[in-house]
Design goal:
With about 1100 residues, the protein is mainly beta. Helix content is about 10%, strand content about 35%. The protein is built from 17 helices and 75 strands. Strands 51, 52, 53, 54 and 55 form a five-stranded antiparallel beta sheet that branches. Strands 56, 57, 58, 59 and 60 form a five-stranded antiparallel beta sheet that branches. Strand 4 and strand 5 form a beta hairpin.
Length: about 1100
């Protein structure tokens, strides 16, 4: 009876599941079709207790018209089951023809499917990669040659990998055909990954000589039906644990390049084709950092600018709870070991590397924008595919994800260690692993690099999904979607965009027929123009994860008008086919034999006249700085370092020749340096008493004539946490345990005046106590004709987020003095500008603060500065970095550019849901614990306030967390009210908050302020330094924005997406509804600022130029081109 009830219950549950699928499908863009309807019942199945479940990376699939009937068919790879091949019979009905593949069984572990007409007979062939086998012979990759469909029968296939010389016996995960040497024949790249010998997470030197078991393989097509292994001679010699493979001509030199996503410790690889049969890994040159556990990837033109962008997947959970249950927390040792063993930085999240175009024929480094785009966290993810799924002309994103055994679960890892001591079997321990069974995700591209997660596109069905492909099965003009699942039947999704469109959605499809050697025209570049809308596609089939996509090129069309033009640039030959006035809603066939030579070379060029040009050999200076790790001191959870500063560059006439010279502040390795202007160059010169190694890193320098004696003096202030005493320690952990280095009761942070006496400088302490300063602002506060000083306080060492007082130092006839009105308790000040905001004739001071609002100090007739209570300023609390003033609207008063962190981050703050910072001593040990919180959805979907840091980080900061939480799961559900009870909250000293990370322009309307957010393309990174100047001579001030920040803790990572941005003021030609500023990228302006910009100086004259100081890099100089200023 019980068995009958169980059987009936199972049937009821199955019926409910089917009903739920049908109901979901009715309301989604993609409709999930049942196996009964399609005839596809493939299931990449493996027993739950199989030892290989825990290491399985699933399998992919391929799309090809195997019988040339104009209907695309499906090939599924299988791990412990046989691959299955299905012919498309029309109307989403498929026929299993696996038996037509002689010798295809379930005795091999196959991972991927790659399609190519390898023998140029017009019939697509199939290449399977094999990953696991008891011996090498059972791990051969296989090639099934399509014999065609004789006499109208279904096609048959014969295995011939050894005959062609591509029966690779390494553990292979994926492959791609491409013509790397442009000889007209398609070569083969094989991505290798050993499942059994998993890569270690322990740092060690990279293997870069081609000897690693996980070294990939390159086979050259000999043109005679055979291939030759040319791996080492082609430079494919760096180890990896490859999971993603993308091919594309990223630098548009006519030769395809290779991007490889590597899991575990190993870095990703960007093999740039050197056009001579070899490749070089140039990822460090073009990408500042990479995905940590890099999995599937895709290469596509995401923003329709004609350049290929790169997207890589990780396994960052979407929910707060899962993050806290699976992520260790991060230690700065990762940075140190990366540097020691020569690894590039890696951070745990999906990444979208945006192509920035070209400058002087060279590819500009990419900008990583995954966070601001909204596609950085998609769970344990495998296959990303960009394509236009809604036919609006923009490429959307589908992500297949899930994993049957989540070995990242922290509580399971602890339990495993305990159970291993009890001699429990590994099998029983693995059975206790949680799963990551989650729905696949869809993101609509709404333009301007914004993607919106769409829960009404794909049915919300949890799955373990791996390889996926897009394909138009029914030739209706929209892209359907296929997914190879683990332990579930494959998903066949019908896209109903066209059916539900009422005739307002359009498309065009292109089938390419290439010449002998590359009949599928892989590597062709296709451009389309329609009513001012531009689209670009580069034709390669190996996409996403271990899969091959529809060989037909698909463009969604946003307008119901003919396509203006289509241009195809054919691979190898470079010939073009050009069409005009093409009808929409059709499939067109293009044959390379009808192409013709290109009259103008297809080379990357700047799209506008450049403002700036790089100049070499102007100044010989490279910033050097020994890394001082602030996180190893008592406050281990501060959000970022304060010691990584410089180079600080100031300008002024040092030698009295009437020309502006340069002073560059000292570091913990280099002394203060002076560079005198000699024509259009700067030459280093020593000055007694000034160009010396200091007891601190200088955080700012001012050059001015303090005593009105006709020569300029110098004022320098101290910054950063490191003192000379600390710099002698190499073991930072030992230092933080044994030394009382948070004590600021020493003179190593003293600020000084260097008085110029006939070219020698006499050092005198400023009349203020030692503190960590952020800037010097020279200002004639009392209108007496000499410069007074305002010095901002950055932070109190060991007491973040406290800061010491900031100071106004008055200059009385060459003597600096302070009085009772001189000190200002205004928090952590980052920048300041002098501005007469109300036009009363007295210079006021506008200050930027961290975790706070802007603050305005009004000058009361030169008698005192009074902090103003201005609701408009108090409204926005940011992580403000920088300020710049200019009358941008030419109304007679100063407006302001306010530099913030930018929106390319994980904080997601708003007025309603800010990021809070609690200054509290949790365990009353005298150490202030800076507890940051942000808002996330709780189990019921309600927004609650939770700790930002991970449990491991908090435990390292305070024993309070060690005692309160003995597992990660309980901590993951505790919000801030659970953690800080009524008694605990009494210890709160104060609380700060951030409700915006955006950068703004603050309009000044006769003393009344108005905020306006800067364009989205400016929000990709912090704005740290600015120059306001009329660069193009139209009488309207423009702005150069330099930025980036490498000081944040490892969990947050680098902010590095600003490569130099110019805002051109269009006020003189403003039309109603258009912005005041036109954003110019490096490609448009000619100025490239790659790295953490810490100084910007503008020298105006017959030859005007910008000098940029970049942290731990060379000073760079850009000339403003004549005729532009």
């Amino acid at each position: 009876m019980i068995a009958i009830l169980n059987y009936r219950m199972k049937k009821i549950l199955l019926l409910l599941f089917v009903i739920s699928i049908i109901s979901c499908s009715e309301s989604t863009r993609f409709e999930l079709l049942s196996s009964e309807q399609t005839g596809i019942d493939f299931n990449n199945y493996m027993e739950e207790n199989d030892s290989l479940v825990i290491i399985s990376n699933g399998a992919g699939l391929g799309i090809a018209d195997l019988n040339n009937d104009n209907l695309q068919d499906i090939i599924f790879a299988g791990n412990k089951v046989s691959p299955r091949i299905y012919l498309n019979q029309g109307n989403f009905i498929f026929k299993d023809i696996t038996s037509n593949f002689s010798g295809l069984t379930n005795e091999q572990w196959f991972s991927s499917v790659t399609i190519n007409d390898i023998n140029n007979d017009g019939w697509p062939d199939i290449y399977f990669t094999s990953t696991v086998g008891k011996n090498y012979m059972e791990r051969k990759n296989r090639l099934w040659i399509n014999n065609g469909n004789k006499s109208g029968d279904d096609p048959t296939f014969t295995e011939k990998a050894e005959e062609y010389g591509i029966a690779n016996m390494d553990p292979s995960i994926d492959a791609a055909f491409f013509d790397y040497d442009n000889d007209g024949n398609l070569d083969l790249f094989v991505l290798n990954s050993s499942l059994i010998q998993r890569a270690s997470s322990s740092f060690r030197p990279k293997i870069k000589d081609g000897s690693s078991q996980n070294n990939d393989k390159l086979y050259r097509n000999n043109g005679d039906g055979t291939f030759t292994d040319v791996t080492k001679q082609a430079g494919i010699v760096i180890e990896g644990f490859g999971l993603g493979l993308a091919i594309g001509d990223v630098n548009k030199d006519g030769y395809p390049d290779i991007y490889i996503s590597n899991d575990y410790l190993t870095n990703d690889l960007l093999y740039i084709n050197q056009q001579n049969g070899t490749f070089q890994n140039e990822i460090r040159k073009y990408l500042s950092y990479q995905t940590h556990s890099s999995m599937g990837n895709d290469m596509a033109d995401v923003n329709n600018d004609g350049n290929l962008d790169i997207y890589t997947l990780d396994m960052l959970p979407e929910s707060y709870f899962k993050k806290k249950q699976t992520i260790n927390g991060f230690n700065y040792s990762h940075y140190l070991f990366n540097e020691k063993f020569d690894y590039e930085p890696q951070f745990l999240r999906n990444m979208l590397h945006l192509h920035n175009g070209y400058l002087n024929g060279e590819m500009i480094p990419f900008s990583e924008v995954g966070q601001i785009s909204g596609i950085y966290q998609t769970e344990w993810s495998w296959s990303p595919l960009f394509a236009d799924y809604d036919n609006d002309g923009d490429k959307d994103l589908l992500v297949a994800n899930g994993y049957p055994k989540d070995m990242t679960d922290k509580d399971w890892q602890i339990m495993r260690m305990k159970l291993q001591k009890t001699n429990s079997s590994e099998h029983d321990i693995i059975r206790l692993l949680p799963t990551v069974k989650v729905p696949n995700m869809a993101f609509e591209n709404i333009g301007e690099l914004n993607f919106i997660k769409k829960t009404d596109w794909l049915p919300e069905i949890p799955s373990y999904s791996y390889g996926a492909s897009f394909v138009d099965f029914d030739n209706d003009g929209d892209l359907d979607y296929v997914v190879n699942n683990f332990n579930d039947k494959a998903f066949i999704y019908r896209n109903n965009t066209i059916e539900n469109s009422n005739g307002d959605v359009h498309f065009i499809k292109i089938n390419l027929k290439g010449k002998h050697g590359n009949t599928m025209a892989l590597g062709a570049k296709v451009e389309l123009w329609q009513k001012g809308k531009y689209q670009f596609s580069e034709h390669f089939l190996s996409r996403g994860y271990a899969s091959s996509v529809d060989p037909a090129i698909h463009f969604g069309l946003p307008f119901d008008v003919p396509v203006d033009s289509i241009r195809v640039i054919w691979p190898a030959s470079g010939n073009i086919t050009f069409l005009k006035n093409i009808g929409i809603d059709q499939t067109i066939e293009l044959d390379e034999s009808n192409s013709h030579p290109m009259l103008v070379n297809f080379e990357p060029k700047s799209k506008s006249k450049l403002l700036f040009s790089r100049r070499e050999n102007i100044i010989d200076y490279k910033h050097e700085q020994t890394d001082f790790v602030d996180f190893f001191l008592s406050q281990k959870i501060i959000p970022h370092k304060f010691s990584q500063i410089g180079p600080i560059i100031s300008k002024g006439d040092i030698d009295g020749d009437g020309l502006e010279d340069l002073i560059i502040g000292s570091t913990n390795k280099l002394p203060t340096k002076v560079f005198l202007r000699k024509g259009n160059r700067f030459e280093e010169s020593e000055f007694k008493g000034l160009t010396t190694l200091k007891m601190f890193s200088e955080s700012d320098i001012a050059i001015l004539d303090i005593d009105n004696d006709g020569d300029n003096d110098v004022v320098a202030v101290a910054g950063g946490f490191e003192t000379r005493k600390e710099s002698q320690f190499q073991d930072y952990r030992f230092m933080s345990i044994t030394g009382n280095f948070d004590d600021q009761k020493n003179n190593e942070f003293q600020h000084y005046l260097y008085e110029n006496q006939n070219g020698s400088f006499i050092k005198t302490p400023l009349p203020v106590p030692p503190f960590l300063a952020s800037f010097i602002l020279p200002i004639d506060y009392d209108n007496d004709g000499d410069k007074d000083l305002f010095i901002g306080s950055r932070v109190k060492k060991g007491r973040f987020p406290y800061a010491e007082n900031s100071w106004l130092i008055q200059n009385n006839n060459g003597k600096f003095e302070i009085d009772s009105t001189s000190r200002f308790d205004i928090g952590m000040v980052t920048d300041a500008i002098s501005t007469d905001y109300d036009n009363d004739g007295w210079e006021d001071i506008l200050l930027a603060r961290e975790y706070n609002s802007l603050v305005l100090l009004k000058n009361i007739n030169g008698k005192k500065l009074v902090q103003q209570e201005i609701p408009t300023l108090e409204k926005k609390h940011g992580i403000w970095y920088s300020l710049a003033a200019g009358d941008f609207d030419k109304d007679g008063d100063d407006d302001y550019i306010i530099g913030n962190l930018g929106d390319n981050n994980q904080f997601n703050v708003s007025d309603e849901y800010p990021m809070n910072l609690y200054a509290i001593d949790l365990e009353m040990d005298g150490i202030l614990d800076p507890l940051r919180t942000t808002f996330f959805k709780d189990k019921n979907g309600k927004m609650k306030e939770y700790p930002f840091n991970y449990l491991d980080q908090l435990r390292e900061q305070s024993s309070f967390f060690k005692m309160k939480y003995n597992n990660y799961t309980s901590f993951s559900y505790e919000n801030i009210d659970d953690i800080l009870d009524k008694n605990m909250i009494k210890r709160l000293e104060f609380k700060l908050h951030v409700n915006t990370t955006s950068s703004f322009i603050l309009w000044n309307d006769e003393g009344n302020f108005r905020w306006e957010k800067l364009p989205e393309s400016v929000q990709v990174s912090p704005i740290c330094k600015m120059i306001v100047e009329d660069f193009n001579g139209d009488k309207y001030p423009d702005i150069l924005l330099g930025g980036n920040d490498y000081t944040y803790e490892v969990g947050t990572g680098y902010f590095d997406s600003n490569k130099g941005i110019v805002l051109m003021n269009k006020g003189g030609e403003q039309k109603s509804g258009t912005p005041f500023f036109e954003v110019q990228s490096s490609e448009q302006s000619g100025i490239l600022l790659n790295g953490m910009v810490q100084s910007l100086q503008y020298f105006k004259g017959d030859t005007s130029f910008v000098v940029a100081g970049i942290n731990r890099s060379e000073v760079v100089v850009f000339e403003l081109l004549k005729g532009e200023n």
